[in-house]
Signal transduction histidine-protein kinase/phosphatase MprB (Amycolatopsis australiensis), 454 residues
Amino acid sequence: MRGTLAGRITLVCLAVAGVAVIVAGLVAARLVRTTADNALQSSLAAQADVVASQLDETGIGNRLGVGKVADVVRGQGISVVVRRAGGQALGDAVAVQAATKLGLGANRSGRVTVGGAQYLVETRVVGTRGAAFALVLPARNAETTQRALVRNILLALGIGLLVAAAAGFVSGRLLGRPLRRAAAAAGSLRAGRRDVRVPVEGPREVAEVAGSLNSLADALAVSEARQREFLLSVSHELRTPLTAVTGFAEAIADGVAAGPEARRAGQTIQREAQRLERLVTDLLELARLGADEFRLDVASVDLGALVRDCAEVWQLRCAREQVRLSVTAPSSPVRVPADARRLRQVVDGLAENALRVTPAGAPMVFSLTVSGTSAELSVRDGGPGLAPEDYPVAFERGVLNARYRDRRPVGSGIGLALVHGLVTRMGATLTAGPAPEGGAAFTMTFPLADVSAP
């Protein structure tokens, strides 16, 4: 099982505290040991200087005899070695060896090893006749200091680990509280609630998680609202042809429509069935746009030739609706990378939307211009146009259908979303804006094809 955040933070704090105490203890041990040895050597040297000031050349002090001096320093664990002028060194055998090894003929300070043990030695010369003495101190203090230091390190480690465990547990609980709230809110979102919000508080990273979760809840609410609007618009669009098909089919079945009436009923059923088929096809293609199996056959396409071919077809339809169709395009080829079949579908879809809202006598325009390294193909109309706030959302599914279906002839709201997806997949851009003719303009911008490429 995965550990909790509080548990992991506690373990990290314990590990950091433990490593810090151990490293600090090891460094301090060496420093303390060196400092202690130097302090002991300095203290021994000071005592040797004091003793030297109390002795004369014969080793008999004018104020303190050597025997009394030896008794004083021996109480501190220090051995005294004395050598009178012309005589031998007297004192403890091991101390005599240590003093002799360092040398009694001069004032010296040092550390010597005798029999595997270390000793601190201070030698002093008294007078001018060669009398000398030495103070010898076993260096056992280092081991004692080291044992005491280990105990102190262990004590500090234990205290540090306890403090680190408490701090880690408290920090983990404090950090985990907003995360637990965020997890609970995510569970509510998964259950279908969209009104849940998480307080944006705590450290920056935790606050970012809460803010992102709140943004996700808002986005889901907006997305589901648009989905409901889209379903309503599609349902409304399906209901009209289905009503006509059902009504005329019942008339034929009941014998109400016979002869020429039956023929007209059949034609109406066929026309509405084709409308339903186009709607279902648009829905399927829109659903496949984001899938990997949706493929485009992109090649070099002459936009000028495509616009002129489209104009030949739409000229007849515009004439039936008494709409003036005009075409502006360069005489030279304008080649862009695109799928010719899908591009023709896009132009036809935009033209159908434009013709639906263009009144008799008003213009509809196919315009192709070249600027720099790009080409722009626009379909414009002289209809009522859109409100300024509607152009940015014109390609969202069902938005325009929901806003204008009670005021003007509109489509299902799928066509513009479909053409936008197709144009985007071909590497171009599609924008909407007001047209000089008074209606709306839908403009596709393509990069020019590299004519030097094979």
Q: What stands out?
A: The radius of gyration is 50 Å. The domain at 204-290 is CATH 1.10.287.130 (Helix Hairpins). Residues 60-64 have pLDDT under 50 and may be disordered. The chain is about 55% helix and 15% strand.
